[in-house]
Amino acid sequence: MSWFKREKVGISTATANKKEAPDGMWNKCPSCKKPLLNLEQVENNYVCQYCSHHLRIGSVAYYSILFDNNEFTELFPNLTSGNPLNFTDTKPYVDRLKDSQAKTGLKDAIRSAHGKIEGQELVIACMDFAFIGGSMGSVVGEKISRSIDYCIEHKLPFMLISKSGGARMMEAAFSLMQMAKTSAKLALLAKAGLPYVCLLTDPTTGGVTASYAMLGDINIAEPGALIGFAGPRVIKETIKKDLPKGFQTSEFVLEHGFLDFIVDRRQLKQKVATYLKLVG
């Protein structure tokens, strides 16, 4: 017979006394699967401290990283999409827009702002993937166009941060027209002699890649970003061949001459500021 007797099995805690970690305090790295404390993510510019994977972030985070003291003036904040085609798929397009606006707190898939980066004035248009996959609709094209007009009027450099699944199918040809519209506006920016910086992030695909995302005076990307036109699965099924290792990653795109360099997000502000000083 054993010389001790267990009174209770395990640790018993009353339900009322149990405490859960607050939502949003922890996240998991999609690459190495290790837990990440939200506060540490912010301090590390949303880059995993274990494997350096760049987490997907939106305009709020990018502006806090790039603009001095997170101070900026948002441009054209109230533009919203119409429904010119009365489009309906699993739900009416109008309802999809309202749901996305309520969920994200955004008006559409892009925000534009005027601020300073290391003391130098800059206009940054940043896409938000959380809003219908960062899709390019008429509002996206209009905000970019108006931002370029603003830059020309005030003689300011322009930076665009791309993060998109491509054209917005709910607007059909109206969406595709934004490719030509933004490209024409960028030609005017170049004619005015003002710098245009493109930052391609994960993912940058479809009509966005085929237009303004690759037209920069300098094209840079974050490490490991998916950059391409059609997706790798579609390409593989079309050509009936296996794709090279790392196909459509920013490293692959750099190797084939479509990027100027890849920049770690933790050095992004310094690199962009240095470029602006060189060309200013």
UniProtKB/TrEMBL annotation:
Binding positions for Zn(2+) per the UniProt entry: 29, 32, 48, 51
Enzyme class, spelled out: transferase
Locations listed in the record: Cytoplasm
Catalytic activity as recorded in UniProt: N(6)-carboxybiotinyl-L-lysyl-[protein] + acetyl-CoA = N(6)-biotinyl-L-lysyl-[protein] + malonyl-CoA
EC number(s) stated in the UniProt entry for this protein: 2.1.3.15
Transmembrane segments: none
Cofactor stoichiometry and binding remark: Binds 1 zinc ion per subunit.
Superkingdom assignment: Bacteria
Gene3D superfamilies recorded: 2-enoyl-CoA Hydratase, Chain A, domain 1
Cofactor: Zn(2+)
Main location: cytoplasm
Keyword set, alphabetical order: ATP-binding, Cytoplasm, Fatty acid biosynthesis, Fatty acid metabolism, Ligase, Lipid biosynthesis, Lipid metabolism, Metal-binding, Nucleotide-binding, Transferase, Zinc, Zinc-finger
Residue span(s) of domain CoA carboxyltransferase N-terminal: 25-280
Segments forming C4-type zinc fingers: 29-51
Record pathway: Lipid metabolism; malonyl-CoA biosynthesis; malonyl-CoA from acetyl-CoA: step 1/1
An example Gene Ontology biological process: fatty acid biosynthetic process
Any single GO CC term annotated in Swiss-Prot or TrEMBL for this entry: acetyl-CoA carboxylase complex
Record InterPro entries: AcCoA_carboxyl_beta (IPR034733), Acetyl_CoA_COase_Trfase_b_su (IPR000438), ClpP/crotonase-like_dom_sf (IPR029045), COA_CT_N (IPR011762)
Listed GO MF terms: acetyl-CoA carboxylase activity; ATP binding; carboxyl- or carbamoyltransferase activity; zinc ion binding
Pfam families: Carboxyl_trans
Family (UniProt): Belongs to the AccD/PCCB family.
Known partners and oligomeric status: Acetyl-CoA carboxylase is a heterohexamer composed of biotin carboxyl carrier protein (AccB), biotin carboxylase (AccC) and two subunits each of ACCase subunit alpha (AccA) and ACCase subunit beta (AccD).
Role noted for this protein: Component of the acetyl coenzyme A carboxylase (ACC) complex. Biotin carboxylase (BC) catalyzes the carboxylation of biotin on its carrier protein (BCCP) and then the CO(2) group is transferred by the transcarboxylase to acetyl-CoA to form malonyl-CoA.
NCBIfam families per UniProt: accD
Protein name: Acetyl-coenzyme A carboxylase carboxyl transferase subunit beta
Organism, scientific name: Rhinopithecimicrobium faecis
Lineage, top ranks: Bacteria, Pseudomonadati, Bacteroidota, Sphingobacteriia, Sphingobacteriales
